[in-house]
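User: Batch of two.

Assistant: Item 1 of 2:
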Amino acid sequence: MAFMIVRSFHIYVPNIQTCKQLLTGSRAFSHFCQKMRQFPVGYFDSSILENRREFLCTSCRNYHVKLKNHTSPVVETIQHLGEANNNLKSNSKTLGEQIFLKELNQWSSYKDIFKFVSTLDNLSDTMVAAIFQRLGEVQLQDSLIKSPELLMENDMFKSLCLRLEKESTHLSDSALVNSLNALTKLHVDPCSSLMVCLVSESQQRLDKGQMTIQNLCILGEGLFNLGGSEHAMLEQIMNQIQSTNVEDWKIEEMVLVYRTLQLCVGRKMNLFQNLLSKMNSFAEMEGCQFTPKQTSTVLSALVVLDETQVNNLIIKLCKHASCYIPYFTDDEMINVLEAFIHFRCSDQGFTEALERHVTKFAFVMHPNTISKTMQYCSTLCILSKPIFNAVAETFVYSADNFTVSQIVEQVVPFGKLNYLPPSAPSFFRQVERFVSMRLSEFEPHELLKLLHSCILIKCYPLNFMEKLFSPFFLQELQAETPRSKILSQLTQLFLTIQLECPYYKKPWLSLDYQVKSFYTRCESLESKVDLHLFNRVKAGMIDLLGSQKYFVYNVLTPYHYTIDIEIKLNEEGFVLPVNAHDEIYERIALCIDDEKRFCANTHNLLGKESIKQRHLKLIGYVVVQIPFFEFNPLDNKNDVVEYLHKKVFPNFYSFHENKAESK
């Protein structure tokens, strides 16, 4: 049976009395019937004209929606009859499901969606499920449902729910599981008759064992939303999935199963490990066919499942993701970046593609995406100047669009990777303004982390030192963890102010909050020396000086820093034994810097290494840097000795004469 859409007869009536007045007048109804008969036969259900009583009954209902395969048409609330008489219009056919879905996705609020739905005559069960799904998408914002009370009280929403409950046994499997999944995201009461009915019907169909992989996965997600990973039906779903042959799956089905396994973490995962292994092997072969959304979904699942043993799959997906950067949504991009961070996976092609994207779209990217991009660079020590410059420029002009946590995530990498952008003056003025305006919103550890990162690149937050060293703030910090890192940051902040801002005479940091050494097991402010590189340098120093008694290693200074190798000189420039204390005129500190002390693939020292060498110079040391990229290419002992000779004693060689006289 064909139905027609009569747009001008879709009424928004202020009250029922108006509706009655419009429809009970015989002239009005006769006029309407005459207008209807002008249209070709078959465009509409003739029962509308033949049965006036039925018409009046259905017309006065606000939102009467019938599902597919039922005989009554959709007849919505009615507009003003005067407009209907003058502006009567019709469509020759009901919108197809595909056209409907395309139209539906254009609306971004539940009011617009219901307004659009109210213009339709017939809704299939697939369409109803799609409506609930779209409502979940537009209502969900930052993991919270917008205006849930208004949505639940909406007449159209109630009518759709009521019809869904009545027709649950006649729904297709797809419509059933999609509707259930969407309603759980809308936080419909799990104990409501509708939800109980849908879950019960789902259980009956699950017991028959005839659901497709796709419907099983969608049902699993809905049940997880209802009861978490402990929901009783989840294991039954996974057992049915596991009984199938992975090689027969479509790519779309495999991606859905990854997502379902992600939900089952912690619930007998060992039972499904064999299935996961097969999926990983299959995904490694078929990964190049993934769409941007599928790539993001699989990487996100691998992070939650902590699949650290499938390096080839992860590397392949990460490389594949570099082609999709312009096409990822913000959420998908965040999932991909989190995977890079979790697996410590970096790819030059991905970084270059990310640079092109950020420099072009930084001003319109979501704040969470910008923050996650900076976290990616920071965690993997990737100093991408195009990204850092673009983020700094964006921050200057739109700092107020960011939350406190997002600001911390964006500013800290500049200090960690020891980089000042071209817009540094305006950038840090904006940082200071932001912190001053929203100081009360900062968690104590966030404020400390932000201010500490600034001193690494010679930006001194003097206006906030009084706050930072106040007894109340320090007491709040004591509850934070890890405590050793917090005390180290406080100590280094205080030391920096002492050494680099001697004119600042405000509050001092109590010894109770100072550490003896910046080297700690947990997130140390100093990098431990690479043992292999250290042993090579140590052997070279013995060959150069003739004995190990002329230098000492791992020296802890009174200023909390640990020196890799220390050499003492007297006033005449002679090298002194390590046990000499009275004749010391100068100390040389050798910093043996391996790859971990630099930003990835660069010769740019990390912020914590830069400030260490800066402070060692200020407390009187002659700092000699032995970087890996200069020392590693040296092939033989003579080259090593000559290199160390020139680096450590560039201007005088008195120790040679001293060595000859001693012989």
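Item 2 of 2:
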Amino acid sequence: MGGGPALHGGGRRAGPRILLRLRARRHRDRLCGPGPHASDHEHHARHRNATARACHLDGTGAAGRARVRGSGGLVPAREARAAHGKDGGGPEAAAADRRELAAARICHGGPGVGARPPLHRGPHSRCRGRGGGRRQRERPREPGEQHGAGEEVPAPPAARRRRDRDGRRHAARHRGTSPLATGPLSPLSTPFHFLSRGERTLRRRGVIPHAPEVALQRTLLAFVILAAGAARAADPEIQFEKHVLGNGLTVILSEDHRLPQVAVDIWYHVGAANELAGRSGFAHLFEHMGFSGSRHVQPSSWKIFEDIGSRAGAMVNGTTNFDRTNFLEVVPGAELPTALWVEADRLGYLLDTLDEVKLKVQRDVVSNEKRQSYENRPYGMADLKICDVVFPKPHPYYGCVIGDIAEIQAASVDDVRNFFRKYYGPNNAILAIVGDFDTPQALELVKKYFADIPRGPDTQVTDIAQPQLSSVVKERFEDKLAELPRYVLVWNGVKQYAPEEAAGDVLAYILGSGKTSRLYRSLVVDKKIASSVSADDNTFALGGWIEITATATKDHTVAEMQPSVQAVIDDVRRRGVTAAEVERAKANIVATKVRSFERIGGFGGKADLLANYQTYLGDPGWFPKDLARYRAVTPDEVKAFAEKHLVDDRRLELDVAPARSAK
């Protein structure tokens, strides 16, 4: 054979079988005393008889089993077969090896004959049928499962799994313990080399501990369970440092070394609420101007960030709402100086390159954005209608953030310069930096790039009372892009961070968030008259609104949805909501906020949270208090919010009809 490994029994390699025999022999000697070791194959027809033979219990079996009295042990089946002139090798002997290992494992400290192992299946055997050699676990043979001369009838894999599962459950009930108990048949007490491959992996990983560790682990587990029941883990806190430079710039630094990245997020306390009459859309227009380049950043900051590996979109962007404008970027940790340089140049030297050509480009970009996002989008004009009705002129929220195209196109270079000089100063800005950096070094970089920028004029926070709807306002209009009718209800809401805001958010979740919400179950699942529903509690610095939206299915109308929507609202106001609904809503809201906490930057990341809390509350570390106010919401508070705000005589009702079906 050319010096290769010795072959034995039908051309099969002897190495693995010898190893199996030695393992079985050592284990049997420890348990049952020494015996004749000419061969260690034990061919058995039933699992219980195999247990009896391996433990030197009296019993009789079918052909192929033998016991030599006075020897102190068993004469395994292979030697018995050889004594009768039968071949002791081949595949049958290899299968017997594996079954004897299973029997030896069962007899290790076993409670007696006939006890089935709670977790163990037999060693692996080769599947020679369909499946091309996939390995499947071999189970101990059930009584009466024989084929021919004592050969096992293989059961389908699914049947084997069911039998093993049922057997484990039966054994656990019989012994009065869990299948994971540490009894004599448990993998917690089985020698390592007799564990199955999956159990060995669990043992290595510590999922199945070694037997001496079990008592200690059980004690610790009991202590942990008691401690968890006594008190819930504390909410996460954002560790940060807050500094104010001489020019008034507020700097918030928070180290997070999980990734070699840094998030830079600068907020300016200026938005649509700061626009003058006839100059709507200015705040948003200026956000676009911020990306058009400055004295030392040419032609645009987009190119610089792309060169250092930060792509536009989620990693580099700017946003504007009613109350603030921000510029954000997520860059590699080593590129923090680059990000700070770009932001400082935008703040200190933007006007140096502002001219009519750049302004015209950005006016056209913003005008086109309104066409794309509102005028040429299904139901887009309905969104603008909400701003116009809930915040009528002269309220600064009128026209939404996007503004009027005619007023945007009328903006001059001088108008933009004056707007910048009034609101874009370091004393009206908050710079939040989160990520992989050293705080003292980062602070020195901030001072290097921002400290010399002169302070701007002091600004006052706009404080205008929110107008209140005094009656039912019904609007019906055609939408040339819509394909399905839509019904929208809008009520006056509350301001951001108002005491009632948390209850309003929970109510909105119960009404229209997810497939368990009341509107979804009623209109989509039960009646099948709506294709989608939603409910939102929108809050801003000067006010907010509660909105319910229902989009009909094909061949159904707004008139069919109205009674069902009203019935859901009436039920909440009259009977309230359940504690289970409130708990589910609170859990999802808190989980969403915690997920935001896990991201260093981008939209709604940790840098955004720090800047948000500082802008509206003056406290960057308000995150635990934010979570606590949602956890404190009760069903009675949700019911009270619905009774106070979801009234029938003061609301906006929008009926959006597809143009082709409008009558």
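The radius of gyration is 37 Å.
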